[in-house]
Each structure stands twice: as structure tokens, then as C-alpha cells.
Amino acid sequence: MRDLIRRIEAATPSGRDRGVDGLRAAAILGVVLGHWLVTALVVDSGTIRVGSPLRSMPHLAPVSWVFQTMAVFFVVGGQMAVKSRSSARVRGESYTRWLGIRMARLFRPVAVVPAVWSMVVVTMLALGADLRTVFALAKLVWSPMWFLLVFAGLTAATPLAARTHPLWPLAVVALTDLVRFGLGGPAWPGWINYMAGWLVPYCLGASWERGRLCGRATAWGLLLGGAAATAALVLWAGYPASMVGVPGARVSNQAPPTLAAVTFGLAQCGAALLLVGPLRRLLRRPAAWAVVTAANLSAMTIFLWHQTALIAVTATGMLTGEALPGLHTVPDTPGWVFARLAWLPAFMVALLVCCAAFLSYERGRPRQEVPYEVSGRMAAGGEDDGPSLSLDDACRR
What we know:
The structure is a single chain. Strand 1 and strand 2 form a beta hairpin. The chain is mostly helical. The two termini are 12 Å apart. It has one domain. The chain has a two-stranded antiparallel ribbon with strand order 1-2. The protein contains 18 helices and 2 strands.
């Protein structure tokens, strides 16, 4: 382990912004833990249905404020995409080639998911599984995939996003919500918010890279202003307090993103800007940096398979023939929450197994051994600074 830590440290370029990578690792951790804590697979008469403790215990909504970290993904994604595109232009790389490389890195590990889950679905149906159970589990695996489509669209629009002020997409979201909720209009305009809503933090990330978000005053303004706007929308405009979807709720802040979700994202972006400095100092420690590097190099695999890990543990628990608390039971009491916390290590072990099985699809083919130099490539968003040893290669060796 010490040797691996040394190799990762040696393979890290001096100009690498470790704070930004730390934010991305924290964001993926928030998504995984959030899904594991608010997703309940309830076994009822041999059928599995998806529930949420937020439906029975709405006072737990503040938990979603901690673990709903998508805005952090998009602000970091915007910052790194603009940086990557600038570097590509310096190298004389065309926009088409630059975009093709980033799309390949984004979607390469996705291909194995439908292959594996097609076999799982066929096997379950052949064994007589209830159709509602199969649909619920497949939907649980596929529902987070919206992120990839939106992120791909925003990546393609990076040159435009670099010149767009975040207030413009924010105004689009506000207008869409006014039509949907204030004027009693149809629901379909809400689809616009999938792009416009997440374009707000993406544009903030682009502004960050271009030096327009300097100073703690700007960060505090985003944090406090976004928090105040979100509180006002929840208290007086009827928006849900939960920042994640709740089964059976009339309105969701995430499907599609609402104005409250976007203002909450502004607060998160402000917090991220405030935290990046302390993270840079913390991640000067080689051991801490090695953990963040491992998380970033596996980010897509973790994102794609964390729900499968939850399902695998739940299915294994069914072999006992009993409804295990916190795993198969209805999430309607504080006891369920404490029991679910006890299951988190089992979910993590299952996720590690998935990573061991499928991480190669994210890493791609190992590159030829080269002199022990440094390179800046980081999976799921970084760029390659040259043909020298990358962080990825250092982990392989």
C-alpha cells in the first residue's frame, strides 16, 4: 500500500488541482450514500417494491440536503471541461476530436450495464419472478442514467457554456416553473429544466475556470443567497423540502429539476468554492490523495453499479427466508434508519466486488510501459497532458 501511495504521488503533476478532484470524490460519495439511505426495497408477499423513508418520515428531508450533490458534479464538470478544451486548442486539437475523446471516456463503461442486466432480467423472468419486481429493479438501475445524457449534452455545449452567464438558464427554469405551477400549464415544459437546470452550475464551473468566481465574498454570496432562496421557495411557494425524489409525491425537485433544486445547487456551488481551499491543503497528504485518486479513477464504475450492489445484498438477504430489518422491511420508523446504517458496510463490499469485475471497462486498455514520469489524465473528466505515465497507469503498476 505504501508503494502504491508513492507511485500515485509521483505520477501526479505539480499543477494538478487536488481540491477540485476532492470535490468530485465527495460528490460521488454523496450520491452513493444518498441512494443507499433513501432507497428501500420492500419485500411484500414475494414481490419487491421501491419505497423511501422520506415518504413516511418527511422530517428526515434535511438528510437529502447533505447527500444530493449533483450540482457539485456539474460545477466541477464545467470547470474541467473548459480547462480541457482550452488545453486541446493549444495542442491544435479539433473540437470534434476533443468531444469524441470525452464521450468515449464517459460512455465506454456504460456498455456493459445493459449486457449484464439483460441477462439478469431474462434469468429472473425464467425463474418465475413477478413482473412488477423485475420492472422495479431494472428501473432502479437505469433511473440514474439521466445524468449521463445531460452531462454529455452539456459537455457538447461547452464552448457555448463558457460564454453564457448562469442567470440566463436560471431565468429559463423560473419561467418553466411559472408555467407549470403558477399558471396551471402542462407538465411537458418541465423537460426543458433537465438541461437548463443543470446548465446553471455548469456555467458557474466555466466561469470559475475563467477566473470570474474569485474571492470568498462570491462564494459566500452563492451559499447564503442560494440557501435563502431555497428556504423561501419551500416555505412560501410550496416546493418540496426534500431535494431527492420521494415515491408518491405530487411534485419532485429532481424529476425534472425545479427552481428550488437549482437555487439549492447555487448554495452547494458556494460551499464547494469555500471548501476547495481546505481540500487542497488536506490532499497534500499522499495517503489522502491516494484515496481521492482511487475514487476518481473508479467514479463511473461506482456510479453505474452502486444500485446493483444494493440489489445484490437485498437479494442475498432474501435467501434467509425472513424479512431482515433495514433491508426488506417498510421504511416507516427510526429503527429502520439505524438498521439501514448497519447494512452500509455490506453494500460497500458488494460495490467493491462490482468494481473489481467491471473497472477494466472504465480504465480501457493498459498503455505500454513508459519512463516513470507524470501525466495529468484523470478518469471521468480529466485530460491527458502527454504520453507519459498517468495516474491510471500508476495504479495499474
